[in-house]
């Protein structure tokens, strides 16, 4: 009896169905109380605009709040930040609309949009099956060359372990407000590559 470890790999490009949007309101230079008030006011003004849309404010979460000196700055300049985060169905028109509200308010802000997949666990399960099948094909080819047969699996382990994300989707109408149409409204959703690597030990004899 012999045992051979053969890697199985499967990957797929998948469309993101959830957009995780993080907005940071920032103010620099001034007294702590002034900076804190400025970012709070700008954040509240933006949320008042959001309140007029189909998005429920309870679905938006505070992701950070600080008034501090930058860690690597030579100058003792205070910086205030208030960060909020929301997860919405991935729709370019809605994302453009949110960006237009920020531009309209002339806020000092940063925004990041990260595409995620709500059914990532199901996709990775399918890929794990494909990776196992790929590994078995390689094992059978090797066994054929050696003149032996594949008897079964001794062990299976992932090449890299990571936690599956739990995504809660906020449900609302895609068109959350009136804004001029943009060509980018029609763009396809963000693509991410999902990949599963398995190390399978096959028993052969």
Molecular structure report:
The protein is α+β, with helices and mostly antiparallel strands and 205 residues long. Helix content is 30%, strand content 37%. The chain has 3 helices and 7 strands. The strands form 2 sheets. It has a 4-stranded antiparallel sheet. The protein is elongated and about 80 Å long.
Q: Which percent range fits the helix content?
A: 25-40%
Oligomer: single chain
Please report which band the strand proportion falls in: under 5%, 5-15%, 15-25%, 25-35%, 35-45% or over 45%.
35-45%
Rg computed from alpha carbons, rounded to a whole number of angstroms? 25 Å
Major sheet: size, sense and barrel closure? 4 strands, antiparallel
Write the layout of secondary structure elements.
Blueprint: E1 2-15, E2 18-28, H1 32-51, E3 61-68, E4 79-89, H2 92-105, E5 109-116, H3 120-146, E6 150-158, E7 191-204
Antiparallel strand pairs: 1-7, 2-4, 2-5, 3-4, 6-7
